[in-house]
From TrEMBL:
<feature type="transmembrane region" description="Helical">
    <location>
        <begin position="20"/>
        <end position="42"/>
    </location>
</feature>
<protein>
    <recommendedName>
        <fullName>OmpA-like domain-containing protein</fullName>
    </recommendedName>
</protein>
<keyword id="KW-0472">Membrane</keyword>
<dbReference type="InterPro" id="IPR050330">
    <property type="entry name" value="Bact_OuterMem_StrucFunc"/>
</dbReference>
<feature type="domain" description="OmpA-like">
    <location>
        <begin position="82"/>
        <end position="209"/>
    </location>
</feature>
<dbReference type="InterPro" id="IPR006665">
    <property type="entry name" value="OmpA-like"/>
</dbReference>
<dbReference type="InterPro" id="IPR036737">
    <property type="entry name" value="OmpA-like_sf"/>
</dbReference>
<dbReference type="Pfam" id="PF00691">
    <property type="entry name" value="OmpA"/>
</dbReference>
<keyword id="KW-1133">Transmembrane helix</keyword>
<keyword id="KW-0812">Transmembrane</keyword>
Amino acid sequence: MNLDDEIDGDAGHGAPVWAVFGDLMAGLLGAFVLILVCALGLQLDLAERLRHEVQQRQAEAQRRQALEQALAVPLAAGRVTLADGRIGISGNVLFAFNSAELQPEGRQLLQSLAGPLAAYLAARDEVLMVSGFTDDRQVRDGTRGRFADNWELSAQRALTVTRALVEDGVPQAAVFAAAFGSQQPVASNADAAGRALNRRVEIAPTPRRGTTR
């Protein structure tokens, strides 16, 4: 056997090794590319979620600011409260105890709110939910003929406020009433001060059904 035969023999044995090495490197490169693509996909998805969340927060901040501007006068006068986008009105201002008839002060307050709320709704695709709440004490015997329980009293109060807002210019299609009775208290019902806080009406702008933000 001469030298050329030895070289040819070595080359013949080395070729499969390089082929296997090449396949291994190609596989590793493919796996690396796949991992990189997945990582980029997750990063893009995370960035999109973050962008969407930032947009939602900005929209909510703009919504609160618009509502605060619309209610600047009654808020400054302390006649209403605004928390988490809900306008709160003390039941003592609107109604006498266990009554669903508006008091003169309450009627004037709703008249002052109707214009700003109508303007706010005209600029946004939202509706008003008017919610009635009571304390946990049952209605007096003298009013049982009119209201079966606190649910009915809170419902009638919410309807009364809703009708008053509509009469003063809020579009009828942009407002609806809800009743919660003694549910969802904001203070303890163990004392008179807490019960007074729980007797309230809240007006909450909310997106129309089917509207996404």
